[in-house]
Automatic annotation (TrEMBL):
Domain of life: Bacteria
Domain FAD-binding PCMH-type: 203-376
Catalytic activity, EC: 1.17.1.4
Entry's transmembrane regions: none
Protein name: Xanthine dehydrogenase small subunit
Native organism taxonomy: Bacteria, Bacillati, Actinomycetota, Actinomycetes, Micrococcales
Length: 490
């Protein structure tokens, strides 16, 4: 217990005696590092953002921004963290801090430390490629495209950071005016060395215990002995329960660093994705090779959340409004459930049994998601929410169709937000298969799709609205295919 510590801004700080449920944000602030702020305590505002050293593909490290309010501090045992204070001080501002000040990117300043950390993560991104003629210290920065600057800055890096008083234009200007890190930049030089390896952890304080097993086999043995243990990967869901609802668990088992759960392999007939591989990493490794997921990722919460969130966590919680289940249902995915007795494979369409319930036994965990190949030729992911990005779905619809000689040969449709569980729209699929892909078929099938599920009314949307969105989703997909076919013909 005395060896448990986190390196923060280059200094090792012990965790001994810290309550097991404590978040990184609360621990940082209690340690005197008050630059990180608590805005929402549920991962929506980014005021608490910090940088964590994570492994990079070249064997070095990358600075990855995450929400400190959601991460259990014991999950950072042995890890390396940089907060806003570690970027720079009043007398030696970091380039990101300088540009924010020059552009007038801060008013009340509450959100600014989080913006600075997220912006710094993008500043140090190894593959950020500026245009050849861009000068980093220009006074004015022309817009390159709606979401990228001429310096290669991806605005999605700031999608999880909210500002309520400054306005986003000066913040964007600051981001787009950044040059490249100097060769002697200490935070850049740090990235040449490997990120810290995961450290097995066992901390028991006041009757609560946080445990990080060393291997998957050890984890599965533990689950057999302690079936009530709470499994936590990215903690983007459990962290909200801890902060907002005051939930506590006697035994939390962290699995996000288990190498067996962080794989991604592609064979001739299947893509297998480890259940604990962060969604941002999945997105990077797939690099658009699964178009349906490529549409999903930018709409899944924010980059801050995707840097921690996982497929396993999104499926494991069983939420009917999770974004990944509809897409995975359309992809005909199967999940691999592992226990100390072995593994079994389950069709995702048969996995959910009720509201936040599934066929997974207490002694099992989700090891991987398997997506069969080849992929369908026509896919689409439609998310209806109050905001374009960083929001919870009112309705999510995913399509995967094969169309040959103008006829629908296969169809899979995944739905979220319209029932107690994510589900397949089997009746609509049956109406499509064997029918011509034309407006008459689509209109007829759309009426069937409208009646799928049992939508309810809540603060996000009414039941009637949800049904209407189902009714229009297939028409939207059809119009996309018509436009694409015209473009090909032209």
């Amino acid at each position: 217990m005395n060896d448990i510590a986190v390196t923060v801004n280059g200094q090792s700080r012990p965790l001994a005696g810290t309550p097991a449920h404590t978040t990184a944000l609360d621990w940082l602030r209690d340690s005197g590092l008050s630059g990180s702020k608590e805005g929402c305590a549920e991962g929506e505002c980014g005021a608490c953002a910090m940088l964590v050293a994570t492994p990079s593909a070249d064997g070095g490290a990358a600075w990855t921004p995450v929400n400190a309010c959601l991460v259990p501090v014991y999950a950072l045992n042995g890890q390396e963290v940089v907060t806003a204070e570690g970027l720079g001080g009043r007398e030696d501002l970091h380039p990101v801090q300088e540009k924010l000040a020059e552009a007038g990117g801060s008013q009340c300043g509450y959100c600014t430390p989080g913006f600075a950390c997220s912006m710094a993560g993008e500043y140090y991104r190894a593959d950020r490629a500026p245009e050849a003629d861009h000068v980093g210290d220009e006074d004015s920065c022309p817009v390159h495209d709606p979401e990228h600057g001429p310096n290669g800055f991806d605005l999605h890096a700031l999608s999880g950071n909210l500002c309520r008083c400054t306005g986003y234009r000066p913040i964007r200007d600051a981001a787009y005016s950044l040059g490249s890190p100097a060769e002697d930049d200490p935070l850049l030089r740090r990235l040449a060395d490997p990120a810290p390896a995961a450290v097995p952890t066992d901390a028991a304080v006041d009757g609560a215990r946080f445990l990080r097993p060393a291997t998957l086999a050890e984890t599965l043995r533990l689950l057999r002995e302690e079936p009530e243990a709470l499994l936590v990967a990215g903690s983007t869901d459990w962290g909200v329960e801890v902060n907002i609802r005051g939930r506590r668990a006697p035994l939390v088992v962290a699995i996000e660093q288990l190498e067996e759960l962080r794989t991604l392999t592609v064979s001739d007939d299947v893509v297998e994705i480890g259940a604990a591989l962060p969604l941002s990493e999945v997105e990077k490794r797939l690099d658009g090779s699964i178009p349906l997921l490529a549409q999903l990722f930018p709409q899944f919460a924010s980059r801050l959340i995707r840097n921690r969130g996982t497929f396993g966590g999104n499926l494991g919680t069983g939420s009917p409004i999770g974004d990944t289940p509809p897409a995975l249902l359309a992809l005909d995915a199967r999940i691999v459930l592992a226990s100390a007795d072995g593994e079994r494979e389950v069709e995702l369409a048969e996995y959910f049994t009720g509201y936040r319930q599934s066929v997974r036994r207490p002694d099992e965990l989700i090891r991987a998601v398997r997506i069969p190949l080849p992929l369908s030729s026509v896919t689409g992911f439609h998310k209806i929410a109050k905001r374009r990005f960083d929001d919870i779905s009112s309705v999510a619809v995913a399509f995967a169709l094969d169309i040959e000689d103008g006829m629908v040969t296969t169809a899979r449709i995944g739905l979220g937000g319209v029932a107690a569980t994510p589900l397949r729209a089997y009746a609509t699929e049956q109406a499509l298969v064997g029918s011509p892909w034309d407006i008459a078929t689509v209109r007829s099938a759309s009426e069937i799709l409208r009646g799928e599920g049992t939508p309810m009314s809540d603060h996000r949307a009414s039941a009637d609205y949800r049904s209407l969105m189902l009714n229009t989703a297939l028409l939207k997909l059809y119009s996309t295919t018509v436009i694409e076919s015209k473009e090909v013909s032209a």
